[in-house]
Amino acid sequence: MKAMNTETPQTETSPILACTISREIQNFDLLIEDMEAAMGENWGDLGFAETMAFFGQAESDRLEFVALAIDSKDEGSLVLMGEIIAQAKARGIGVILIAEDVTPASLHQLLRQGADEFVPYPLPEGELQAAIDRLRAPEPEQTQDVPNPHVLKPDAAREGAVIVVQGLAGGTGATTLAVNLAWELAGLVGDGAPRVCLIDLDLQFGSVSTYLDLPRREAVFDMLTDTASMDEEVFGQALLSFEDRMQVLTAPADLVPLDLISPEDVQRVIDMARRHFDYVVIDMPPTLVHWSETVLHAAHVYFAIFELDMRSAQNALRMKRALQSEDLPFQKLRFALNRSPRFTDLNGKGRIKRMAESLDISIDLLLPDGGKQVTQSCDHGLPLAMSASRNPLRKETAKLARSLHELGQNDAKSA
Question: Which of 161, 233, 297, 302 gives 20 to 30 Å between its CA and that of 139?
Fold first, then answer.
């Protein structure tokens, strides 16, 4: 075993509480820096071969966690990696998996074998410390994984409409629209309130669970990584009910690669949701990934959310060129301008017109600025209809929901 701080040897007053495990720790220099910041002198480094022997020593009893750092060259030793994880878990030692250029299949295998946390390398700022804090946090109450009382019937024969929301830049309000639109659809009355499922496909930084104050559950990760064997029961267990009105599939509990799931996985999830719900609202990541085309083809309406600024205009143009160059159904996109100028702002109206003309697109939806109430509503985990029903953004979202529902009913009657 090698102590990383060579100037100050480990003593009885600085016990080893954590270890990095790697083929060559110098390949992970950022990990060294973050471990020193998080653990001071109370950590050391192990090679793969010496780890199993160290676990048999009394000194290992003090370990809080190990950080298993691997790259693409280590994928041939997955069996050994799995055994290291198993031995650590058997001794009550937490495992943080740190991976660089590792295939989703290998990553999935190691996570299924018991790794507690996953952090990509190069390490995002503060992410290692956050993973350590989660390991040290008290175990959550098991009531979070109580089966969802909403049972999906295997003989369901619905063909729900798929409504997709994607932001063309960070902070444009895509998740806010997705959450509130889903809630407004679920609250429509008439012949019967529609059944609505809200799906967060922003696997890494999805905020749907935050905006609705819902827990993130391991059942989501388990379902997404094995959709081939997914049935109504598995899908239903992954869902959470919000206010007994709509069902929500949150993002996974841990940060995972966007390519962890395949286009086939996404298609199976969408097909399952459509069979059991009248509306399936999908919140997309701002990044285009290899399964974005699958969602685009499945969508009945695809809202592209942007703002009246240069970054949004440039990204809208990039999106347009990307879809048209691949001969994808660009016509499905409905451009929605968030935080649009007020009705009386003539200068703002002129800017909107010039922006649409320069991009050669139609801006189909103007969403007003909801102000601080929107941020407060998201922080409190409530839709705007429950926290600020008179908010102008809420009113416009409710109007949009009614319009989409009426359009769907008219199409059904004419079919």
Answer: 233
